[in-house]
Q: What sequence folds into this?
């Protein structure tokens, strides 16, 4: 971003402050504001989308140098804000979609056909031209959202190397956890989580193949919703594997995440999986499941071994015990001491078959994505590997190997090994989470932090992470509710009621 551009933004924020004594109180109210708060202020003529975007641009100018949550700001963000403000004047109140005039940040792997780049954090894709907006981006534009920019991420969704630092990409630099700057922000949707946590934007979109929404949400004290695979379109998003990839909201509150989910879920002719999954969407969408009494009568399973045993060792045991009490007080039936069959196998990407299947699928999917680009300096995984060898331009990139890339490049489609791995993964889900949920009649399982992400990843199951506390160093952690495919309505009821009963999230403190 050009320094001149930043200066103009800053001066416009300052002049706004100088002319209207309410700047502190006004900016205070934008910080931590929900979509609902913002809509209300806009309806009362206390706020415009332009003021909202100006506030965020000011905060980005102030904080992004430190946090590196954002790779690019949309040069058209203010234009889009003005268009939203203008359109609002000509429409009846209440006739506009919920996201109308609301700024949203997209992980850098989510394609936009506009002035911005879509690169998964890599210089290899700089100035590539996508054929069209990603399916979820078309839906966001239809809903009137303002695309504020592209968020940083772990390069290639953490699929380049096993030794890549979380939240680092050559284009974005090292993203920082705004609570404890020396702690990991986790990845790969690091930038979306960092940026909503630090109030650089209202809401954001991340993607998950295994843990990439749940983990950064957990570490940045925000809500991460990983939808059932296919509920949201993956078309136009730089892929890992269509078998597990899913696009979902990362926001400060459950209700914000649900407003975003309502806007992006549903059929997209460019992603066949959305056809079937769209039948999961309840009439009228998910908003009506924002029910403060949503815990009443829900059967929640607790798998202690290994999940809560592990966090007990970290001194978080008491906090989670008190959360179980909260769930019971809310009227949930907590079914304790359950087991998921073969959990040790499921949690190890090598023994489950997840690694073997995913690397082969990655090569196929990434090559297909690159082939579809209108313009691109690279057209295959092999080209990207060669690019990285030729341009180890950053000190840090030099030290990051291409282990996963090379393993993926060595695969040759879906052969006997991959088929066996895929069968094993299916079996692990059928005889694992699915069997447990059905045998015990559960509505959801409760797990700490993001730790159960492989359980949800390999089966394409949905899960939602809600802030659950801060450790002795001040590093945030979440609690995750997961369930069977299409169970978003139930998960939202549970997560919302839990959030309302606990209200654990607080804005970041920027500790060293
Ligand atoms: C702003 O401050 C005024 C005066 O102190 C107060 O009446 C008003 O409620 C405040 N508005 C917000 C949104 O906090
Ligand atoms: C996209 O990348 C090109 C090349 O670095 C750059 O000139 C352009 O400004 C980028 N777009 C945005 C919106 O930053
Ligand atoms: C999986 O295998 C790779 C390559 O052999 C190894 O580096 C990695 O540590 C293994 N991961 C686990 C969870 O065992
Ligand atoms: C599926 O898993 C069950 C136990 O969980 C095991 O007995 C069975 O052999 C597995 N089937 C295949 C085809 O791997």
A:
């Amino acid at each position: 971003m050009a320094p001149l551009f930043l200066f103009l933004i800053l001066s416009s924020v300052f002049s706004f402050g100088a002319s209207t004594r309410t700047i502190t109180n006004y900016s205070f109210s934008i910080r931590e504001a929900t979509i609902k708060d913002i809509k209300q202020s806009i309806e009362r003529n206390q706020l415009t989308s332009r003021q909202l975007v100006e506030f965020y641009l000011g905060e980005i100018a102030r904080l992004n140098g430190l946090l590196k949550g954002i790779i690019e700001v949309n040069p058209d963000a203010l234009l889009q804000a003005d268009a939203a403000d203008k359109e609002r004047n000509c429409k009846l109140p209440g006739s506009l979609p919920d996201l109308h005039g609301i700024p949203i940040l997209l992980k850098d792997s989510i394609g936009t056909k506009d002035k911005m780049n879509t690169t998964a954090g890599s210089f290899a894709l700089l100035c590539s031209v996508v054929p069209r907006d990603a399916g979820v981006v078309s839906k966001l534009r239809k809903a009137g959202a303002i695309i504020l920019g592209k968020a940083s991420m772990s390069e290639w969704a953490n699929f380049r190397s096993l030794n890549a630092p979380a939240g680092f990409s050559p284009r974005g630099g090292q993203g920082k956890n705004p609570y404890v700057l020396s702690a990991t922000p986790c990845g790969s949707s690091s930038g979306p989580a960092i940026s909503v946590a630090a109030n650089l934007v209202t809401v954001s979109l991340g993607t998950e193949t295994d843990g990439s929404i749940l983990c950064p949400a957990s570490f940045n004290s925000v809500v991460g919703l990983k939808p059932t695979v296919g509920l949201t379109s993956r078309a136009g998003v730089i892929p890992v594997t269509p078998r597990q990839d899913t696009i979902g909201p990362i926001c400060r509150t459950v209700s914000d995440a649900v407003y975003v989910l309502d806007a992006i879920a549903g059929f997209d002719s460019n992603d066949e999986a959305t056809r079937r999954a769209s039948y999961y969407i309840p009439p009228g969408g998910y908003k009506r499941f924002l029910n403060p009494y949503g815990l009443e009568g829900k059967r929640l399973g607790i798998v202690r071994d290994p999940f809560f045993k592990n966090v007990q060792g970290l001194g978080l045991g008491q906090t989670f015990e008190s959360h179980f009490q909260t769930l019971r007080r809310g009227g949930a039936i907590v079914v304790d001491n359950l087991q998921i069959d073969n959990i040790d196998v499921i949690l190890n990407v090598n023994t489950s078959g997840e690694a073997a299947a995913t690397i082969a699928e990655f090569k196929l999917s990434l090559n297909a994505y690159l082939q579809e680009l209108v313009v691109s300096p690279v057209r295959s995984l092999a080209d990207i590997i060669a690019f990285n060898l030729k341009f180890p331009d950053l000190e840090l990139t030099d030290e990051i190997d291409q282990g996963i890339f090379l393993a993926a490049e060595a695969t040759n489609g879906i052969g006997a090994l991959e088929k066996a791995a895929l069968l094993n993964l299916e079996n692990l889900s059928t005889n694992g989470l699915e069997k447990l949920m059905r045998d015990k009649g559960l509505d959801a399982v409760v797990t700490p932090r993001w730790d159960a992400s492989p359980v949800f990843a390999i089966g394409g199951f949905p899960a939602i992470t809600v802030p659950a506390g801060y450790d002795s160093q001040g590093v945030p952690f979440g609690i995750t509710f997961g369930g069977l495919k299409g169970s978003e309505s139930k998960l939202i009821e549970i997560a919302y009621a839990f959030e309302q009963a606990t209200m654990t999230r607080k804005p970041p403190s920027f500790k060293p």
Summary: Residues 416-440 form the longest helix (25 residues). The longest strand covers residues 463-470.
